[in-house]
Amino acid sequence: MPSEPFDGRIVVVGASLAGLRAAETLRDKGFTGPLTVVGEEPHPPYDRPPLSKQVLLGRVPAHATTLPRRRPVDARWLLGVHAAGIDPTGRRVLLADGGQLPFDRLLIATGTRARPWPNREEARLTGVVTLRTGDDAAELGRLLDAGPRRVLVIGAGFTGSEIASACRERGLAVTVAERGPAPLVGALGGTLGAFAARLQRAHGVDLRCGVTVTALTGSGGRLTGAELSDGTAIEADVAVVALGAVRNTEWLAGAGLAAGPKGVACDAGCRAFDMYGIVTDDYFVAGDVARFPHPLFEYQMLSLEHWGNAVAQAEVAAHNMVSPGPLRRPHLTVPAFWSSQFGLNIKSVGVPTFSDQVVIAQGSVEEGRLVAVYGYRGRVTAAVGVNRAKSLEHYQRMVETAAPFPPGPGASDAPEAAVPVPSDVPDPKVLSHGPTVALTGHLPDRRLTLLRPGG
């Protein structure tokens, strides 16, 4: 006999992209029970990628990136409310204002926040900012509108590089400080990292690699500059801290889930693991805060800060929350993301950091239009297109089918005898920013108490 439809109470913690799409999908799937969405920010769900692109260029107001609703969602929206914890026995979400939300099933979609500058006194200097929220973008936009003499960007990952690009397009002087050997190297490896370094310098960026910012200096409460690990100093009126993201899991301490600094571990169906590795049926996770196994990448736990992953995973999580076991489905989408910077469109499919070799399969570094294909142990694991986004559909199929690496002939402009080279994916510890993809097989992040049968 068919199972009765689920009609219990569902709470979604996180009112950004994943939370919104999950709520819409729950209603699409016929869920008619009580639905509550909790969001820490007071704003309705909005799109974050434009914040480091169109918003910083002044083309779109900071708070005009509200996400379109795909359908009406009959839900109770609690915005500007912080979730402080979970009572696992009473099955309640505890709110910072003292409120409590009982639930039968819970979706954790709390995402990430910007990693702050570690020195709190320096971080309070006027002119020192991060970029993660719409409010952050509005503040940074005001600082750039004031025409600073120089902007310092700390970290040359995708966010830092996009900010540097926007500054140069505005005609502002910009210095980028990166602990690693090149921009984007933590996401794309050495070959495209070297390409990105040449690109930034060609656009007038004062790029400093292999250095760290040891101190931010100020006068009268305002930023005046920075000291670098190589003994040099620079003057700057604005410093953007682009040191990667912190996953929002602290509120789950004591909840008994496999949650830690690397995220919340779940199975391929988005069901959260408890701290002993037992999958739960009533706790689900989606978006940037999730860590999940993927068969294309040796079932390692994957954490992704990608727009498309948040949407796809939220839809799978919502489907599985209200579906009986035989009808549940896995989240097996191939990771994909894109970036626009310095006049180029960069798009990636797969996981470039899960590689040992890379080959330029189409175009060339010299012409600035190319497709780099990544391989691991003789199979294709990723591809990155620079101003060649249309070519990536072919390579995505190669990733999905674990096609042999290096790829065979088929690209009409592929150079003859293209030879794979080491992909030079660095240890994340040598970077000053977090990668957009993290692969690890280790969870949870703390020592466990072992359960032993009674004697």
UniProtKB/TrEMBL annotation:
Keyword annotations of the record: FAD, Flavoprotein, Oxidoreductase
Any matching Pfam family: Pyr_redox_2
Region (Disordered): 403-427
TM segment ranges: none
Biased composition (Low complexity): 411-424
Classification via InterPro entries: FAD-oxidoreductase/Apoptosis, FAD/NAD-bd_sf, FAD/NAD-binding_dom, FAD/NAD-linked_Rdtase_dimer_sf, Reductase_C
Record domain FAD/NAD(P)-binding: where: 9-314
Cofactor(s) this protein cannot do without: FAD
Chain ranges of the Reductase C-terminal domain: 337-407
GO molecular function, one term: oxidoreductase activity, acting on NAD(P)H
GO cellular component labels: cytoplasm
PANTHER family: APOPTOSIS-INDUCING FACTOR 1, RIESKE DOMAIN-CONTAINING PROTEIN-RELATED
Protein name, as recorded: Ferredoxin reductase
Provenance organism: Streptomyces caatingaensis
